[in-house]
Each structure stands twice: as structure tokens, then as C-alpha cells.
Amino acid sequence: MRVLKFGGSSLATPDRVRDVGRIVRHTVNGSAAIVVVSAFQGVTNDLLDCAHLAERRDPACEAAYERIAARHRSAVDDLLGRHHGRRVRALVDEQLSELRDALHGIRLLGHCPPAALDVTASFGERLSALIVSAYLNRFRRTRFVDARQFVTTDDQFTRANVIFSKTNRAARAYFAAFWRPSRRDLPVVTGFIGRTQDGRTTTIGRNGSDYSAAIIGAALGASTIEIWTDVDGVLSADPKEVSSAFVLPQMTYEEAIEMSHFGAKVLHAGTIGPAVAKSIPIVIKNSFNPAAPGTLISRKPTNGYRLAKGISSVGDLTLLTLRGRGMGGVRGTAERLFRALASRSVHVILTFQASSEHTMCFAVSKSEVAAAERAIAEEFRLEFHHGLATLDHKPDQALIAVIGEGMKGRPDVAGKVFGALGRHNINVSAIAQGASERNISCVVDAAQQARALNVIHQGFFETRTPLALVVVGVGNIGGALLRQLHDRQSYLLEQGFDAKVIAIANSKRFVVRHDGIDLGRWREALDASSRRMDPHALAHEIAGLEIANAALIDCTAASSIVDAYPEFIQANLHIITPNKRANVLPWRRYTALRKLFAAHQKHFLYETNVGAGLPIISTLRDLIVSGDVITKVEGVFSGTLSYLFNTFDGTTPFSALVRDAQRMGYTEADPREDLTGQDVARKLLILARQTGVKMELDDVRVDSLVPRCLADGPFSQQFFSAYAAYDAEMAQRLQRARARGAVLRYVGTLERGRARAEIGEFPRDHFFAATKGNDNLIAFTTTRYARTPLIVQGPGAGADVTAMGVFSDIFKLLHYLPH
Questions:
Q1: Which of 8, 238, 398, 682 sits in a 20 to 30 Å window from 19, CA-based?
Q2: What are residue 742's DSSP bridge partners?
Q3: Residues sharing a CB contact under 8 Å with residue 396, sequence separation 6 or more, in sequence order
Q4: What's the CA gap between 819 and 814, in Å, rounded?
Q5: How far apart are CA 699 and CA 695, in angstroms?
Q6: From residue 738, how far is each of 34, 741, 759, 773 by CA, in Å?
């Protein structure tokens, strides 16, 4: 025999009641069962509001009553039709008439005692069960059952305590008589309500319908109790805060009780006590999705224990800490504290105590802080008067609890929890672990609550390492990167990584989608967005998503994005970029930015700052880390200038080659960035700072290929016409080099703390003469590579190779993140 309980959301509308009918027909299918129902969604609150309006003799009470009446009469007409529902409507009208009389009595008294409030609230379930029973009777013989016939309680109105010795005996007798004619009859029982021994109506607390189902199931020895609600089961975390939360297929009673205590709302610990006492399995099912298997809650799991089962949280807390010189070593301080709190009915959610009772910390709901303060001030008035004790406050706190039977005896669990929080700069205010070892709890700032849930959930439950990408700049490099990410998605998944692009921006607008942007249609998504691009607004929005692992991919050359780096770091994003501007900031800003990355434990990856897709920076780092001493770094650092001088043979004017290079995407949007040597200067500065040299951009000596008169002002296509005037000079330099059996190359050199970028002549057998196309060639002369430099050579320009380098940095970051 099964007990099926349907909550208010499952009965919100006539269509939802029809769905319940389908569930009962298909799952019960003629077997013995009991259906327990709540009031229609929202009706209990409406009834209580109505009672308070009547107490104040507010004329609005009549309109509120009529809305309640109309809703139930309409449900009868919709479900049964006016003709077939005539008898049921008469029964509903009887109940509504009784409700009107109860409200009239409250109005006459001008007072609504708890007993009257219970009578008023009881009509939600009485009307709901009557209507649902009548509807189900169309498919199977059902009868309305008023739980007051057998649920006996004390007279603690609004939260009455069940008297189980009488209730169990009465329930068994009632249902034995009910089923005597036929076991096929289906009772539809009112949840939430009972009556005192002298016959007065009571309610057994909010969520009382779950409790009613457990009471009935335990009294009759049900095989299972099914709680039908509006979610697929108990989830590993709150899905509103953790998008990757999933349904737990099974859990133990103890895990369910722990999770409900720490904020999980699907099941309330107090309501399942009778079922737990009788070891009756409980199944949480979704009436909106009956095919979902739900969550089985039982004495022991059937497939063993996993390390952690779920993560719950409770917000709006305040930490109160009682400390004092006169309390250390004094016995009974804790007893005095908690007795005082109990006397004011203060619910202590969690406690933490230092040795010798010198410091005692506890968490309470924000709404109970004032009562707690008054209780402590009264109990410890002498200690406060003599300055022997203080009470500290830490408001805006949240409790995070990691729960699971599999945590017992596992020394790595605490490290996993607090390591994840530490890596994401989430400060822990207090820590507690239950003696059962199935719960580790900590208190964090409320502002960090959602992120704490996400990072812990990721550490315990997610099989793939997730990374959310924010791509800013969708020109040549950004567009190529998005194409590569799209093409390599399956490969990343195979490697255990779930990298998805959640935001894309260009200079005009941005689009954000928490669940990821379709990289096959990203242009349409961006073009359709009405969000004006502002780096600060984008950083603020990403911060609000509370993502555990996220990275900004800056594919621009813009200073405005670099200026917003601190906000992206504070929003907990790593940064990957080919944009060189951050690494060439003035020394003070550069070091401040580096410290910010370190303080927030965020990675800054910029391999493509030098050499596009070539491993220049990583090679330099590896040499230094291995203990080698760098004596000289020299090379063809600009893929653009490499292409120009490898192509320049005198047959085509130099300015025409520059125009062609821009068309092919080998230059910056403004080719003067390359021709002035500033691009090479930046790369030299970046390498110099990697070696520990304190250097500014102005310290790099630069040989510009652009006359001063053309170097300033906004760039336009007219530049190429003006630049043609200098073609003759470039042709002469080429002829002089050839006459000496040499080639022209634009080379950067870093040596003895000094850097220079200049055009030079090199013999045809020199390694710089071996460059082809847009090659970069960088030579490292070190203590170990003194005679023959270590050379790294390859394409150093072009969107695809640079995007490949950015993709490689993303792959590195995925490996750096904890698995």
C-alpha cells in the first residue's frame, strides 16, 4: 500500500488537477493506495490574510473571501462540468458557508485567536480534497476523507503536536472500516489538519501535508510514501544558485534530514519523522514530469556511498561572538549562554567554541539578533558592567553545509572543501564539523554565498572541469578563436573539459548567456543584442553570475579593456590575451596589476604577446626557472616587418607591400603600430620584465620606419599615398645592403638591461637571413647556450596562428584549474 501526497503546486489549476488524475490512474492502477492533498497553491496564505482582514474589520475581507470562493467553484465547473458537478458544488458551498461563518465570528470579536486561525486555514485542504476526490471518482471509486476523523493532536494551535498513541490506533481502525467493502476504494485525505481530543480543529504546521502523509504511512505500514512536488527530486544544490545542480537518485534519511536543516526546501526534516521511525522509503517525484525517476530516501543507499551527497546553504545570518577575560576556564558559561537564548526562543543555527569557553560564537537568523542580544545582555550583565565580556557582531553571513554519508572517516573532505574556497578567495568566518562526520559546515560572507556553493559543487560533483569564457574582440583573431573553439569542442570534452563561451563583445555591444552561446550562430546573437558595450558593465554582469571558473579572453588591442582588468579580476576571472598593453603599462600600474592577480589567485596568460603562436615567453620562463642565465635575447619579433623585408626585393615599392600586408591581415589595423617599431619595442619590454629588469617603454631605443610627420593623427587610407614618398629611400637602403652581400631585417635586441629595435644589415649566412614569409625568429644566448643560441622560429603573424596560441593558453588554464 502506497501513500501519495500532492502539494499545492501540483494542484494549482484545474489542468494541474487533471495531471494528478493521470498520475494516479497510471501509477496506482487499481492497487491499494491513499492520496493526501494540500490546499490549492496559495490558498492557505489567502485564507490567513482573510482572517486577519476580518480581525481588523477591513471591508476588503469580503472581496478576499469571494475570490477564494470563486476559485473553488470555478475549479468544480472546469473539472466536472456544471451538470455533473452540481452535487459537488453543493458540498463546496456548504464548506464555503462554514468558512464565511468563521470569518464573521472573527469580525464580530475583532480578534483572531490561534484556534480561529486554524479553523480558517483548514478550509484550504477540506475544499481541495473534496474537489480532487470528486474529479478522481470519474475514473476510480474515491471517497473524501477528513483527517480530523483520526489525527488527534494537543491544543498548540497553528503548530499542534500529534498524539501518536491515539492517532495510530484511530487511523488503523478508520481505514480498516474504509476498506472493508472493497480494497479498491481510494481515499483522498486532507493534509495539514487534525483535531484536539475535545474536537477542536488544529493544524500541524506549515508543510503539514508532508507530515500527514508520513503519519498515515507509518500508522498503516505503507510500502512507500511518495511526495509529489514541482521538482524532479532532491537536488545536489539549489539550482537557482548552482546551474549544474542535478537530481540525487537516492540518499539516506540522515542525509535528507541534514540537507533540510541546512536549507534544502524539497523536504522538511520534521515532516518525515514517522516514516523514518518505521523505515518506510520516501520517494520525491515531480508531478510536472512524472517520468523522472525522482529521489529515493531510505535507511541505506542501494549502490553504496559517494563522498558527498549535497550542498545546502542558509542566508541572512549574523555571527555573534561572546568573549571575555573572565570566562576562560569558568565552567558553565556555555550553559548560561544557551539557556539564556532558549529562554527567548532564539533558534541557534550553528555554534563554534574556542577552548576553555573563552570565546563562543554562534549563528542566528538576522530576524532573531535583537532577541539574542537582549538575552545575553541580561544573563551576562555583571560581566559586561565590569568590562570582562564583549559581544561582537558579524552581519550578512551565510552558512554552507556539505553533506554525505560517504564523508565518514575521509580525511580529504575538509581539504577539498576549504581548498576550493581558498583558491577562489572566499574567506571563511567560522567552521564546524558534526560528530557524525556526515556534515562539514562553514560560514562565509553572504555576498560570497552563491560562488561558494558553485566552487564546492564543482569540486565534489562535476566530472569535467568547467570554464566559462568571455571573449572580447571578434575581429580577425577573436573570430578565428571562436571558430577554433567551435571546431574543438568535442576534443575538449573528450579531455575532460567543458569550456563554453558565455559572453561575446565587440566595440559596440555585448551578449551574455549563462548557459553558453551557440558558436555556430554567435554573430546573429551578438547582432541581436541591445546591450551597449561597456567593459565595466560587462565585468559587473559576469560577477553577478557567480561562476566558479571563468576567464576573460581579450582579443582587442584596446587600452579601455586593459583599464577594466582590475574589475574583471575582482569578478574572479582569469585573463588570457594577445593584447600587449597590460604588460607594457607604466611600472607602478604594471606591478599593481600583477599584485592584484596574485591576491585573487588568478592566472594571467599572454603567450601570444610575443611571437603569436610561438612558445617565446614560455621558453624564456623555462630557461630562467631551470637556473640558466640570460645574457642576450635578439630576434625578428614582428611578423609584419618580417614579411615586408622578406618580400621587399625592389620590384614592388615598399609602401605597396605595406598596403598588401594590411589587406592580408598581417599588420595591426593601423600599420604604423608595426612600422614605427612600437610593436617590437613592446615585445622587448615584455621580455625584459620577464627577466626581472625594471624598464619602461620609453627606455627602449626605437628606429622608426615612419617619418614623424606621418606618425601622428588618426589613420586613414591616405597614409599609403603619403608614405610612397619614402619608397626611394627604402630602395636605396636595400641596394646598399645587397652591395655588401647582406639582407635587411628589422631586429630587436635585449642585452645587459638595455633594449633597442632597429633596421639592420645581416650577412646572408646569418640566422636572421633565414627567415621566410612572416616568420619570427628569436635567439636566446644564455650561459648554457653561449656558443650557439637557442632559436625559436616560425610564423609570427596572422589571425589563425595567434588564435591558436590563445587556444593553447586556454588549454593550459584548463589544466591549471583543480580537477
A1: 238
A2: 763
A3: 318, 445, 446, 447
A4: 9
A5: 6
A6: 100, 5, 14, 19
* Block residue for cell numbers 494541474: 16
| Tens-digit pLDDT profile for residues 650-709 | 999 999 999 998 888 778 788 998 999 999 999 999 999 999 999 999 999 999 999 988
The pLDDT value recorded for residue 305 is 56
In the predicted model, is pLDDT for residue 147 greater than 90? yes
In DSSP terms, 443 is beta-bridged to 399, 430
- How far is the C-alpha of 700 from the C-alpha of 723, rounded, in Å? 25
CB 672 within 8 A of CB 640: no
Buried b (16+ CB within 10 A) or exposed e, 664-681: ebbbbeebbbbbbbbbbb
Q: Phi-psi region for residue 112, left (φ > 0), alpha (ψ -120 to 50) or beta?
A: beta
Calpha distance 709→781 (Å, rounded): 38
| 366 included as an active-site residue | no
Say if residue 65 is exposed, middle or buried (CB neighbours under 10 Å; 0-12, 13-18, 19+).
Answer: buried
Handedness of CA 298, 301, 305, 309 (dihedral sign): negative
Cα angle 168, 172, 176; round to 5: 170
Mean pLDDT score of the chain? 91
**What is the total residue count of the chain?**
819
- Closest by alpha carbon to 718, among 671, 755, 653? 671
- At 413, is the pLDDT very low, low, confident or very high (cuts 50, 70, 90)? confident
Helical ranges in 648-741 per DSSP H = 654-663, 672-675, 678-690, 708-711, 718-723, 727-739
Q: Which of these, 610, 624, 655, lies nearest to 777 by C-alpha position?
A: 610
d(CA 621, CA 605): 13
- The catalytic position among 309, 416, 602, 683 is 683
Contact 259/201 with Cβ under 8 angstroms?
A: no
How many angstroms separate the CA atoms of 119 and 764, rounded?
A: 102
H or E element in which residue 274 lies: helix 273-277
Bridge-partner residues for 186, per DSSP?
142
pLDDT tens for residues 327-355? Answer: 655 677 888 999 999 999 899 988 877 66
- Residue corresponding to grid cell 476526490: 133
pLDDT digits (tens, 9 = 90+) for 99-144: 999 999 999 999 999 999 999 999 999 999 999 999 999 989 999 9
C-alpha dist (Å) from residue 751 to 547, 685, 779: 44, 12, 12
Whether 303 shows a pLDDT value over 60: the answer reads no
- The residue-averaged pLDDT of 579-604 equals 96
Q: Which amino acid is at 79?
A: L
Percent of the chain with pLDDT over 70: 96
Q: Per-residue confidence at 396, pLDDT binned at 50, 70, 90?
A: very high
Show Cβ contacts of residue 382 under 8 Å, excluding neighbours closer than 6 positions.
Answer: none
Relative to beta strand 701-702, strand 465-472 is unpaired
